[in-house]
Design the sequence.
């Protein structure tokens, strides 16, 4: 019988000259791209966070973009899992240089660079702009709601707080009226015209205690009973003061919001699309706004308000703060179409391709053929009047002003017909009593007309076709391909830090995917690897930084 021969198997063998660990890592592996990228980034702001004395810390290059970012690229967001991978995975071991930091050290580092990580993200986008992956001239904007780590049952609602606070103030007034006039004297009358505050309630309770202590000792049973009743009322007044302070703290934390979570005060309760019960349940979360180009994340920001209308201006302002300029073009859906946003983009020379709420409805035949709609009425701009379907002039009668949540003042003109009684078209025209009146915001109408012309143009049709495959595709890849559906930190600053790490990892992963796609489809005329393609990006780093962001040239 033939004897079987196997290769030698010695699990505990010792090598005299150990081989390099990266020999088992492919030359075009994305881990090499991460390694090359970090070595060419400016980390002076991060190095300034460390002290010159004490125990030597781990190197920030190893800890930040070579381990954490590579972990985020592979859907690993837990520090405990990263700690295990540093002991098991050859890619992580090579990036860390055989170092073995524990999960506490990794998490402490993330929290330490929670402000500086934004600059690293900006550097990466500038490198992508230098290579031609993005131009930073077109910004495709969209938002999504991401659930917070906060407890969904620790909610605080503004309406409930204001309602209970008003009830508490009534209780305080009634309680002061019950206190004996000889003790309270003119305090009750004084506080009926003055707004109660926790400090005022505390001072009043202290004065009432002092006044009660100065009274002679009770002798009879009735006097002792009355004294105990006053002491009980004063103690109850103190409790009311503490509760009033709690309500005021809730209102201060709420600010302009309608709700927040006690476990994460920065999170607001919003309606999420990921509602398993399909009952419209609200959850604590953040409104994530991103700007994309060529499916790269070029900017991001987190907001507490659930609607997108009020986020456009501060989001574009953050883009200006990041790159020292505004984008030349902005593309967004109808959730951003408001007079305030259109005016901002026009004043800052931003070519807007932003829909308004009735843009698609206006294209329908039923809308165009309806003569009773305000948009279809004839308007004489010279004499400032509208003409109803019966030919009657609707003259100007006054102006109305409104204020948005951001403080922007809107102006609408009101027009009214003179004789609507007996009109044969009245039933189809309007249903209210009297003569028909309409309100028109002429400035908004003009902005909508300009937006419509841009949207139906050839360039507008191109941007409209790209918008669904730009930020919405990024959201799909983020939530389903990379399993980033829920924040894992408390507080706006830490949540921003976590997403900054993710955005860096996402862009690097996207760059590697596009380079690999170019190789496979033969878009390059020469043989190229991911590592080679990335080093071409690195070669233009200094030139691009001086051109786009001069403050980094020093």
Sequence:
């Amino acid at each position: 019988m033939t004897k079987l021969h196997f290769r030698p198997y010695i699990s505990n063998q010792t090598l005299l000259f150990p081989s390099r660990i990266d020999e088992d890592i492919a030359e075009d592996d994305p881990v090499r791209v991460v390694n090359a990228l970090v070595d060419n980034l400016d980390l002076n702001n991060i190095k300034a966070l460390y002290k010159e004395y004490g125990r030597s810390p781990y190197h920030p290059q190893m800890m930040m973009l070579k381990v954490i970012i590579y972990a985020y690229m592979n859907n690993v967001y837990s520090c405990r899992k990263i700690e295990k991978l540093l002991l098991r995975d050859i890619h992580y071991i090579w990036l860390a240089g055989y170092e073995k930091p524990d999960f506490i050290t990794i998490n402490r580092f993330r929290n330490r660079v929670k402000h500086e990580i934004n600059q690293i993200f900006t550097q990466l986008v500038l490198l992508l702009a230098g290579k031609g992956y993005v131009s930073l001239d077109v910004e495709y904007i969209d938002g999504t709601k991401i659930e917070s780590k906060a407890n969904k049952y620790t909610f605080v609602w503004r309406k409930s707080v204001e309602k209970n606070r008003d009830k508490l103030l009534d209780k305080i007034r009634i309680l002061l009226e019950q206190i004996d006039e000889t003790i309270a004297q003119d305090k009750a009358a004084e506080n009926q015209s003055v707004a109660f505050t926790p400090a005022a309630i505390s001072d009043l309770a202290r004065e009432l205690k002092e006044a009660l202590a100065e009274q002679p000792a009770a002798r009879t049973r009735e006097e002792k009973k009355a004294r105990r009743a006053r002491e009980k009322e004063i103690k109850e007044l103190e409790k009311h003061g503490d509760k009033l302070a709690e309500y005021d703290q809730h209102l201060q934390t709420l600010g302009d919001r309608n709700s927040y979570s006690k476990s994460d005060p920065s999170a607001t309760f919003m309606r999420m699309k990921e509602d398993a019960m399909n009952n419209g349940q609200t959850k604590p979360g953040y409104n994530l706004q991103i700007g994309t180009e060529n499916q790269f994340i070029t900017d991001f920001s987190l907001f507490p308000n659930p609607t997108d209308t009020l986020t456009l201006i501060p989001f574009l302002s953050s883009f200006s703060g990041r790159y020292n300029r505004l984008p030349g073009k902005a593309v967004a859906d109808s959730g951003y179409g408001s007079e305030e946003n259109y005016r901002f983009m026009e004043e800052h020379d931003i070519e807007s391709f932003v829909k308004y709420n009735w843009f698609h409805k206006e294209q329908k035949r039923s809308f165009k053929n309806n003569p009773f709609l305000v948009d279809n009425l004839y308007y004489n701009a010279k004499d400032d009047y509208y003409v109803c379907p019966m030919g009657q002039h609707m003259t100007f009668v006054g102006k109305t002003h409104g204020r948005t949540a951001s403080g922007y003042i809107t102006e609408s003109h009101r027009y009214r017909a003179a004789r609507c009684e007996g009109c044969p078209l009245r039933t189809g025209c309007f249903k209210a009593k009297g003569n028909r009146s309409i309100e028109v915001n002429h400035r908004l109408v003009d902005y909508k007309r300009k937006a419509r012309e841009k949207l139906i143009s050839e360039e507008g049709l191109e941007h409209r076709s790209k918008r669904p495959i730009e930020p919405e595709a990024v959201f799909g890849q983020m939530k389903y391909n990379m399993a980033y559906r829920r924040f894992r930190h408390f507080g706006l600053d830490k949540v921003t830090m976590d997403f900054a790490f993710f955005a860096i990892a996402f862009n690097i992963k996207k760059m590697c995917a596009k380079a690999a796609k170019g190789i496979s489809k033969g878009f390059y005329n020469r043989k190229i690897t991911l590592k080679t393609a990335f080093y071409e990006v690195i070669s233009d780093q200094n030139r691009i930084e001086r051109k786009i962001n001069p403050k980094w040239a020093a």
About this structure: DSSP finds 23 helices and 13 strands in the chain. The CA atoms of residues 144 and 475 lie 8 Å apart. The radius of gyration is 33 Å.
